[in-house]
Protein backbone atom coordinates (compact mmCIF):
# COMPACT_ATOMS: atom_id res chain seq x y z
CA UNK A 1 0.00 0.00 0.00
CA UNK A 2 1.35 3.45 -0.82
CA UNK A 3 1.98 6.05 1.84
CA UNK A 4 -1.12 8.06 1.02
CA UNK A 5 -3.31 5.07 1.58
CA UNK A 6 -1.54 4.22 4.81
CA UNK A 7 -2.07 7.73 6.16
CA UNK A 8 -5.74 7.55 5.30
CA UNK A 9 -6.19 4.25 7.14
CA UNK A 10 -4.27 5.38 10.21
CA UNK A 11 -6.13 8.68 10.37
CA UNK A 12 -9.45 6.96 10.07
CA UNK A 13 -8.83 5.10 13.26
CA UNK A 14 -9.40 8.10 15.50
CA UNK A 15 -11.25 10.60 13.31
CA UNK A 16 -14.96 11.27 13.21
CA UNK A 17 -16.20 11.41 9.60
CA UNK A 18 -19.30 13.38 8.77
CA UNK A 19 -20.37 13.31 5.16
CA UNK A 20 -23.17 15.40 3.69
CA UNK A 21 -24.46 14.04 0.40
CA UNK A 22 -26.75 16.07 -1.79
CA UNK A 23 -28.86 13.81 -3.90
CA UNK A 24 -30.94 15.23 -6.63
CA UNK A 25 -33.61 12.69 -7.43
CA UNK A 26 -35.76 13.11 -10.57
CA UNK A 27 -39.06 14.79 -9.77
CA UNK A 28 -38.60 15.16 -5.96
CA UNK A 29 -35.51 17.36 -5.47
CA UNK A 30 -34.82 16.14 -1.92
CA UNK A 31 -31.60 16.66 0.06
CA UNK A 32 -30.27 13.48 1.74
CA UNK A 33 -28.16 14.24 4.83
CA UNK A 34 -25.94 11.36 5.94
CA UNK A 35 -26.11 10.80 9.70
CA UNK A 36 -22.74 11.13 11.41
CA UNK A 37 -21.16 7.81 12.09
CA UNK A 38 -18.17 7.36 14.31
CA UNK A 39 -15.72 4.77 13.18
CA UNK A 40 -13.33 3.65 15.84
CA UNK A 41 -10.53 1.46 14.80
CA UNK A 42 -7.80 0.01 16.89
CA UNK A 43 -4.32 0.09 15.73
CA UNK A 44 -4.65 -3.58 14.92
CA UNK A 45 -7.66 -2.86 12.69
CA UNK A 46 -5.54 -0.41 10.84
CA UNK A 47 -3.33 -3.20 9.63
CA UNK A 48 -2.97 -3.45 5.95
CA UNK A 49 -5.56 -5.79 4.38
CA UNK A 50 -4.50 -8.19 1.68
CA UNK A 51 -5.65 -7.26 -1.84
CA UNK A 52 -7.99 -10.24 -2.02
CA UNK A 53 -9.71 -9.59 1.33
CA UNK A 54 -13.42 -8.84 1.36
CA UNK A 55 -14.15 -5.10 1.57
CA UNK A 56 -15.63 -3.70 4.78
CA UNK A 57 -19.25 -2.65 4.14
CA UNK A 58 -20.43 0.26 6.21
CA UNK A 59 -24.18 0.75 6.26
CA UNK A 60 -25.27 4.34 5.88
CA UNK A 61 -28.55 5.65 7.24
CA UNK A 62 -30.23 8.57 5.48
CA UNK A 63 -32.82 10.97 6.77
CA UNK A 64 -35.00 12.40 3.95
CA UNK A 65 -35.57 16.09 4.42
CA UNK A 66 -38.01 17.96 2.18
CA UNK A 67 -36.56 20.72 0.10
CA UNK A 68 -37.92 24.17 0.78
CA UNK A 69 -40.68 24.84 -1.80
CA UNK A 70 -39.95 27.26 -4.60
CA UNK A 71 -41.85 30.49 -4.42
CA UNK A 72 -45.24 30.05 -6.08
CA UNK A 73 -44.99 26.25 -6.12
CA UNK A 74 -47.89 24.23 -4.76
CA UNK A 75 -47.14 21.54 -2.17
CA UNK A 76 -49.12 18.84 -0.45
CA UNK A 77 -49.54 18.40 3.34
CA UNK A 78 -46.14 16.78 3.56
CA UNK A 79 -44.49 19.74 1.89
CA UNK A 80 -43.84 17.84 -1.30
CA UNK A 81 -44.34 19.65 -4.64
CA UNK A 82 -47.56 18.79 -6.43
CA UNK A 83 -47.00 17.50 -9.96
CA UNK A 84 -48.81 19.50 -12.67
CA UNK A 85 -51.63 17.74 -14.45
CA UNK A 86 -50.83 16.00 -17.71
CA UNK A 87 -52.05 18.25 -20.55
CA UNK A 88 -55.01 17.01 -22.56
CA UNK A 89 -54.24 15.39 -25.89
CA UNK A 90 -54.25 17.70 -28.91
CA UNK A 91 -57.53 17.67 -30.87
CA UNK A 92 -57.64 15.09 -33.65
CA UNK A 93 -56.74 16.42 -37.11
CA UNK A 94 -59.30 16.07 -39.91
CA UNK A 95 -58.75 13.08 -42.19
CA UNK A 96 -56.37 13.46 -45.12
CA UNK A 97 -58.55 13.86 -48.20
CA UNK A 98 -55.79 13.62 -50.83
CA UNK A 99 -53.51 10.86 -49.65
CA UNK A 100 -51.30 10.67 -52.71
CA UNK A 101 -50.95 11.82 -56.29
CA UNK A 102 -49.51 9.97 -59.26
CA UNK A 103 -45.78 9.50 -58.86
CA UNK A 104 -45.53 9.13 -62.63
CA UNK A 105 -47.89 9.37 -65.59
CA UNK A 106 -45.82 7.02 -67.73
CA UNK A 107 -48.16 3.97 -67.49
CA UNK A 108 -51.05 6.17 -68.63
CA UNK A 109 -48.97 7.73 -71.40
CA UNK A 110 -47.89 4.33 -72.71
CA UNK A 111 -51.53 3.24 -72.87
CA UNK A 112 -53.05 6.24 -74.64
CA UNK A 113 -50.34 7.93 -76.69
CA UNK A 114 -50.45 5.40 -79.60
CA UNK A 115 -54.01 6.57 -80.32
CA UNK A 116 -53.11 10.29 -80.40
CA UNK A 117 -52.30 11.59 -83.88
CA UNK A 118 -50.64 14.64 -85.39
CA UNK A 119 -52.58 16.30 -88.19
CA UNK A 120 -51.02 18.32 -91.00
CA UNK A 121 -53.30 20.18 -93.39
CA UNK A 122 -52.63 21.80 -96.75
CA UNK A 123 -54.72 24.50 -98.36
CA UNK A 124 -54.23 25.90 -101.82
CA UNK A 125 -54.98 29.55 -102.51
CA UNK A 126 -54.94 30.98 -106.01
CA UNK A 127 -52.59 33.85 -106.74
CA UNK A 128 -54.21 37.27 -106.55
CA UNK A 129 -52.46 38.55 -109.69
CA UNK A 130 -51.20 41.65 -107.88
CA UNK A 131 -47.65 40.46 -107.38
CA UNK A 132 -44.91 42.98 -107.86
CA UNK A 133 -43.29 42.62 -111.27
CA UNK A 134 -39.51 42.33 -111.14
CA UNK A 135 -37.97 45.52 -112.58
CA UNK A 136 -35.78 43.49 -114.94
CA UNK A 137 -38.79 42.34 -117.01
CA UNK A 138 -41.15 45.26 -116.48
CA UNK A 139 -42.20 46.69 -119.83
CA UNK A 140 -40.83 43.75 -121.76
CA UNK A 141 -42.68 40.86 -123.49
CA UNK A 142 -41.73 38.70 -120.51
CA UNK A 143 -44.04 40.71 -118.23
CA UNK A 144 -47.17 39.14 -119.76
CA UNK A 145 -45.74 35.66 -119.44
CA UNK A 146 -44.88 36.45 -115.80
CA UNK A 147 -48.49 37.48 -115.04
CA UNK A 148 -49.86 34.36 -116.74
CA UNK A 149 -47.58 32.13 -114.72
CA UNK A 150 -48.46 33.82 -111.42
CA UNK A 151 -52.17 33.42 -112.11
CA UNK A 152 -51.72 29.69 -112.49
CA UNK A 153 -49.46 29.40 -109.50
CA UNK A 154 -50.95 28.20 -106.26
CA UNK A 155 -49.53 28.81 -102.85
CA UNK A 156 -49.64 26.08 -100.24
CA UNK A 157 -50.76 27.06 -96.74
CA UNK A 158 -49.83 24.49 -94.12
CA UNK A 159 -51.37 24.14 -90.67
CA UNK A 160 -51.05 21.63 -87.87
CA UNK A 161 -53.27 20.23 -85.16
CA UNK A 162 -54.05 17.14 -83.14
CA UNK A 163 -56.62 14.37 -83.00
CA UNK A 164 -57.28 10.93 -81.54
CA UNK A 165 -58.54 7.59 -82.82
CA UNK A 166 -61.84 6.41 -81.32
CA UNK A 167 -62.37 3.32 -83.46
CA UNK A 168 -59.85 0.73 -84.69
CA UNK A 169 -61.21 1.17 -88.21
CA UNK A 170 -59.58 4.61 -88.33
CA UNK A 171 -62.21 7.09 -87.08
CA UNK A 172 -60.41 10.20 -85.78
CA UNK A 173 -61.85 13.12 -83.81
CA UNK A 174 -60.45 16.63 -84.04
CA UNK A 175 -61.60 20.26 -84.15
CA UNK A 176 -63.42 21.72 -87.10
CA UNK A 177 -61.12 24.72 -87.11
CA UNK A 178 -58.15 22.36 -87.57
CA UNK A 179 -59.31 20.66 -90.78
CA UNK A 180 -62.05 23.01 -92.03
CA UNK A 181 -61.35 24.08 -95.60
CA UNK A 182 -58.30 21.81 -95.96
CA UNK A 183 -57.59 20.40 -99.39
CA UNK A 184 -55.30 17.73 -98.02
CA UNK A 185 -55.13 16.13 -94.58
CA UNK A 186 -52.18 14.01 -93.49
CA UNK A 187 -52.18 12.03 -90.26
CA UNK A 188 -49.08 10.70 -88.50
CA UNK A 189 -49.08 8.26 -85.59
CA UNK A 190 -46.74 8.31 -82.62
CA UNK A 191 -44.61 5.60 -84.27
CA UNK A 192 -44.00 7.83 -87.30
CA UNK A 193 -46.43 6.13 -89.65
CA UNK A 194 -48.13 8.60 -92.00
CA UNK A 195 -51.49 8.16 -93.71
CA UNK A 196 -53.79 10.37 -95.78
CA UNK A 197 -57.16 11.15 -94.23
CA UNK A 198 -60.49 12.26 -95.58
CA UNK A 199 -63.14 14.41 -93.93
CA UNK A 200 -66.36 12.60 -92.97
CA UNK A 201 -68.11 15.69 -91.65
CA UNK A 202 -67.97 18.54 -89.18
CA UNK A 203 -70.22 20.55 -86.89
CA UNK A 204 -69.82 24.31 -86.73
CA UNK A 205 -71.80 24.78 -83.53
CA UNK A 206 -69.57 22.49 -81.45
CA UNK A 207 -66.34 22.88 -83.48
CA UNK A 208 -66.08 19.11 -83.91
CA UNK A 209 -64.83 17.32 -87.03
CA UNK A 210 -64.48 13.64 -87.86
CA UNK A 211 -61.88 12.35 -90.31
CA UNK A 212 -60.97 8.80 -91.34
CA UNK A 213 -57.87 6.93 -92.40
CA UNK A 214 -57.78 3.53 -94.07
CA UNK A 215 -55.61 0.86 -92.51
CA UNK A 216 -55.29 -2.84 -93.24
CA UNK A 217 -54.62 -3.51 -89.56
CA UNK A 218 -56.74 -2.33 -86.61
CA UNK A 219 -55.41 0.89 -85.16
CA UNK A 220 -54.91 1.68 -81.46
CA UNK A 221 -57.84 3.64 -80.09
CA UNK A 222 -59.18 5.22 -76.92
CA UNK A 223 -62.62 5.29 -75.33
CA UNK A 224 -64.90 8.02 -74.02
CA UNK A 225 -65.15 8.82 -70.34
CA UNK A 226 -68.08 10.42 -68.54
CA UNK A 227 -67.37 14.14 -68.29
CA UNK A 228 -70.37 14.54 -65.95
CA UNK A 229 -68.31 12.75 -63.30
CA UNK A 230 -65.37 15.11 -63.72
CA UNK A 231 -64.86 17.34 -60.69
CA UNK A 232 -62.83 20.46 -60.08
CA UNK A 233 -59.41 19.40 -58.84
CA UNK A 234 -59.30 16.09 -60.75
CA UNK A 235 -56.02 15.17 -62.44
CA UNK A 236 -56.00 15.26 -66.25
CA UNK A 237 -53.44 14.42 -68.94
CA UNK A 238 -53.42 16.42 -72.18
CA UNK A 239 -51.84 15.06 -75.37
CA UNK A 240 -51.26 16.70 -78.72
CA UNK A 241 -48.96 18.26 -81.28
CA UNK A 242 -47.94 21.68 -79.89
CA UNK A 243 -46.35 24.03 -82.41
CA UNK A 244 -45.99 21.06 -84.77
CA UNK A 245 -43.21 19.52 -82.66
CA UNK A 246 -44.91 16.14 -82.60
CA UNK A 247 -46.63 14.05 -79.98
CA UNK A 248 -46.22 15.34 -76.43
CA UNK A 249 -48.12 15.31 -73.14
CA UNK A 250 -48.74 17.73 -70.29
CA UNK A 251 -50.52 17.24 -66.98
CA UNK A 252 -52.65 19.40 -64.70
CA UNK A 253 -56.01 19.56 -63.01
CA UNK A 254 -59.55 20.57 -63.85
CA UNK A 255 -59.75 24.24 -62.87
CA UNK A 256 -63.46 24.82 -63.50
CA UNK A 257 -66.47 23.35 -65.30
CA UNK A 258 -69.41 24.84 -67.17
CA UNK A 259 -67.43 27.71 -68.71
CA UNK A 260 -69.34 29.83 -71.24
CA UNK A 261 -67.02 31.52 -73.73
CA UNK A 262 -69.81 33.03 -75.81
CA UNK A 263 -68.84 30.98 -78.86
CA UNK A 264 -72.06 29.04 -79.37
CA UNK A 265 -75.31 27.84 -77.87
CA UNK A 266 -73.69 24.66 -76.59
CA UNK A 267 -70.85 26.35 -74.73
CA UNK A 268 -70.12 24.26 -71.63
CA UNK A 269 -66.34 24.09 -71.53
CA UNK A 270 -64.13 22.37 -68.99
CA UNK A 271 -61.30 24.67 -67.90
CA UNK A 272 -57.90 23.00 -67.63
CA UNK A 273 -54.61 24.26 -66.20
CA UNK A 274 -52.43 21.76 -68.08
CA UNK A 275 -50.29 23.63 -70.63
CA UNK A 276 -52.15 23.74 -73.96
CA UNK A 277 -50.44 25.47 -76.87
CA UNK A 278 -51.21 26.18 -80.53
CA UNK A 279 -51.22 22.80 -82.25
CA UNK A 280 -52.89 21.05 -79.32
CA UNK A 281 -56.33 21.86 -80.77
CA UNK A 282 -58.31 18.71 -81.41
CA UNK A 283 -56.24 16.64 -79.00
CA UNK A 284 -57.70 14.69 -76.08
CA UNK A 285 -57.74 15.34 -72.35
CA UNK A 286 -57.67 12.08 -70.39
CA UNK A 287 -58.77 11.14 -66.91
CA UNK A 288 -56.59 8.85 -64.84
CA UNK A 289 -58.33 5.79 -66.32
CA UNK A 290 -57.15 6.70 -69.81
CA UNK A 291 -60.60 7.79 -70.99
CA UNK A 292 -61.23 10.93 -73.02
CA UNK A 293 -63.23 13.43 -70.99
CA UNK A 294 -62.68 16.50 -73.21
CA UNK A 295 -61.39 17.69 -76.59
CA UNK A 296 -58.92 20.58 -76.42
CA UNK A 297 -60.47 23.52 -78.23
CA UNK A 298 -59.32 26.95 -77.01
CA UNK A 299 -56.75 28.76 -74.87
CA UNK A 300 -56.32 32.18 -73.32
CA UNK A 301 -52.97 33.41 -74.59
CA UNK A 302 -51.80 37.03 -74.37
CA UNK A 303 -48.46 36.16 -75.99
CA UNK A 304 -49.27 33.14 -78.18
CA UNK A 305 -48.33 30.44 -75.66
CA UNK A 306 -49.88 28.71 -72.69
CA UNK A 307 -50.62 30.67 -69.52
CA UNK A 308 -52.36 27.79 -67.80
CA UNK A 309 -55.90 28.59 -68.97
CA UNK A 310 -57.19 26.16 -71.56
CA UNK A 311 -60.64 24.87 -72.45
CA UNK A 312 -61.96 21.50 -73.56
CA UNK A 313 -65.30 20.43 -75.00
CA UNK A 314 -66.85 17.84 -72.63
CA UNK A 315 -67.15 14.29 -73.87
CA UNK A 316 -70.89 14.29 -73.09
CA UNK A 317 -71.28 16.82 -75.93
CA UNK A 318 -68.65 15.44 -78.31
CA UNK A 319 -69.43 11.71 -78.27
CA UNK A 320 -73.01 11.91 -79.65
CA UNK A 321 -71.92 14.48 -82.25
CA UNK A 322 -69.16 12.16 -83.44
CA UNK A 323 -71.58 9.22 -83.65
CA UNK A 324 -74.04 11.30 -85.66
CA UNK A 325 -71.40 12.58 -88.08
CA UNK A 326 -70.05 9.06 -88.54
CA UNK A 327 -73.53 7.83 -89.39
CA UNK A 328 -74.92 10.71 -91.47
CA UNK A 329 -72.00 12.99 -92.35
CA UNK A 330 -73.41 15.92 -90.40
CA UNK A 331 -74.92 16.88 -87.05
CA UNK A 332 -78.35 18.42 -86.51
CA UNK A 333 -79.31 20.76 -83.70
CA UNK A 334 -82.65 21.95 -82.43
CA UNK A 335 -83.99 25.44 -83.05
CA UNK A 336 -87.13 27.36 -82.07
CA UNK A 337 -86.65 30.80 -83.61
CA UNK A 338 -87.00 32.73 -80.36
CA UNK A 339 -84.93 35.48 -78.75
CA UNK A 340 -84.54 35.37 -74.99
CA UNK A 341 -84.30 38.14 -72.41
CA UNK A 342 -82.09 37.00 -69.53
CA UNK A 343 -83.50 38.89 -66.54
CA UNK A 344 -82.28 38.77 -62.98
CA UNK A 345 -85.08 36.47 -61.86
CA UNK A 346 -87.07 35.45 -64.94
CA UNK A 347 -86.17 34.20 -68.41
CA UNK A 348 -88.50 35.90 -70.83
CA UNK A 349 -89.13 35.54 -74.55
CA UNK A 350 -88.21 38.85 -76.17
CA UNK A 351 -89.31 37.97 -79.72
CA UNK A 352 -90.66 35.06 -81.76
CA UNK A 353 -89.83 34.51 -85.43
CA UNK A 354 -92.85 34.47 -87.70
CA UNK A 355 -93.52 30.97 -88.93
CA UNK A 356 -90.80 29.48 -86.72
CA UNK A 357 -91.19 26.35 -84.59
CA UNK A 358 -91.66 28.45 -81.45
CA UNK A 359 -94.56 30.43 -82.86
CA UNK A 360 -96.17 27.30 -84.29
CA UNK A 361 -95.97 25.68 -80.84
CA UNK A 362 -97.80 28.58 -79.18
CA UNK A 363 -94.93 30.55 -77.62
CA UNK A 364 -95.50 34.32 -77.48
CA UNK A 365 -93.48 37.42 -76.85
CA UNK A 366 -93.49 38.20 -73.12
CA UNK A 367 -93.85 34.61 -71.94
CA UNK A 368 -91.68 33.75 -68.94
CA UNK A 369 -90.14 30.29 -69.29
CA UNK A 370 -90.17 28.48 -65.94
CA UNK A 371 -89.46 24.84 -66.76
CA UNK A 372 -88.51 22.56 -69.64
CA UNK A 373 -89.39 18.91 -69.16
CA UNK A 374 -89.79 19.46 -65.39
CA UNK A 375 -86.31 21.04 -65.13
CA UNK A 376 -86.25 24.58 -63.76
CA UNK A 377 -84.80 27.15 -66.16
CA UNK A 378 -82.16 29.22 -64.37
CA UNK A 379 -80.61 31.18 -67.26
CA UNK A 380 -81.09 32.01 -70.91
CA UNK A 381 -77.84 30.18 -71.71
CA UNK A 382 -79.20 27.03 -70.10
CA UNK A 383 -82.41 27.23 -72.15
CA UNK A 384 -80.52 27.81 -75.42
CA UNK A 385 -78.26 24.84 -74.64
CA UNK A 386 -81.29 22.67 -73.94
CA UNK A 387 -82.89 23.64 -77.26
CA UNK A 388 -79.68 23.21 -79.28
CA UNK A 389 -79.00 19.79 -77.76
CA UNK A 390 -82.45 18.54 -78.73
CA UNK A 391 -82.89 16.80 -82.06
CA UNK A 392 -85.28 18.17 -84.68
CA UNK A 393 -88.67 16.52 -84.35
CA UNK A 394 -88.46 16.14 -80.57
CA UNK A 395 -91.15 17.62 -78.32
CA UNK A 396 -90.24 19.46 -75.11
CA UNK A 397 -92.84 20.44 -72.52
CA UNK A 398 -92.47 24.12 -71.67
CA UNK A 399 -94.03 25.62 -68.55
CA UNK A 400 -94.48 29.34 -69.20
CA UNK A 401 -96.04 32.10 -67.17
CA UNK A 402 -98.43 34.28 -69.16
CA UNK A 403 -100.56 37.00 -67.63
CA UNK A 404 -99.82 35.60 -64.17
CA UNK A 405 -100.91 32.08 -65.03
CA UNK A 406 -98.76 29.01 -65.66
CA UNK A 407 -99.34 27.19 -68.93
CA UNK A 408 -97.84 23.91 -70.13
CA UNK A 409 -97.12 23.89 -73.87
CA UNK A 410 -95.79 20.97 -75.96
CA UNK A 411 -93.11 22.66 -78.05
CA UNK A 412 -91.93 20.95 -81.24
CA UNK A 413 -88.23 21.40 -82.00
CA UNK A 414 -87.29 22.36 -85.55
CA UNK A 415 -83.99 22.02 -87.45
CA UNK A 416 -81.41 24.76 -86.98
CA UNK A 417 -80.95 26.78 -90.20
CA UNK A 418 -77.44 27.11 -91.58
CA UNK A 419 -77.51 30.89 -91.19
CA UNK A 420 -78.92 30.86 -87.64
CA UNK A 421 -77.08 32.86 -85.01
CA UNK A 422 -75.22 30.87 -82.41
UniProtKB/TrEMBL annotation:
Keywords: Hydrolase, Membrane, Protease, Transmembrane, Transmembrane helix. It holds the Pfam family Trypsin_2. It comes from the Bacteria. Residues 322-385 form the PDZ domain. One of its GO terms (biological process) is proteolysis. InterPro entries: Chloro_Bact_Ser_Proteases (IPR051201), PDZ (IPR001478), PDZ_sf (IPR036034), Peptidase_S1_PA (IPR009003), Peptidase_S1C (IPR001940). GO terms for molecular function: serine-type endopeptidase activity. The chain crosses the membrane at residues 7-27. This is PDZ domain-containing protein. It comes from Swingsia samuiensis.
Amino acid sequence: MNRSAQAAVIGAGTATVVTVVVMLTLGTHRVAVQAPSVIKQSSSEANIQPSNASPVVIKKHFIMMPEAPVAGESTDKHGLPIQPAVPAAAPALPPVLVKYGPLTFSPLVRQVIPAVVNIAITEHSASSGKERVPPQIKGTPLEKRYHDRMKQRQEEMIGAGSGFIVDPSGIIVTNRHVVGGADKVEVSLSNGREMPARLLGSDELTDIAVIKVDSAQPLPHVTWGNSRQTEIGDWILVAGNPFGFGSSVTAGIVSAVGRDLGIGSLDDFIQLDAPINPGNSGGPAFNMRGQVIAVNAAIVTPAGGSVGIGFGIPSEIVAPIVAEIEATGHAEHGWLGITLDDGETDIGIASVDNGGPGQKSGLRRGDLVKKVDDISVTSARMLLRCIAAAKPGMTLNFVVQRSGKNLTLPVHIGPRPMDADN
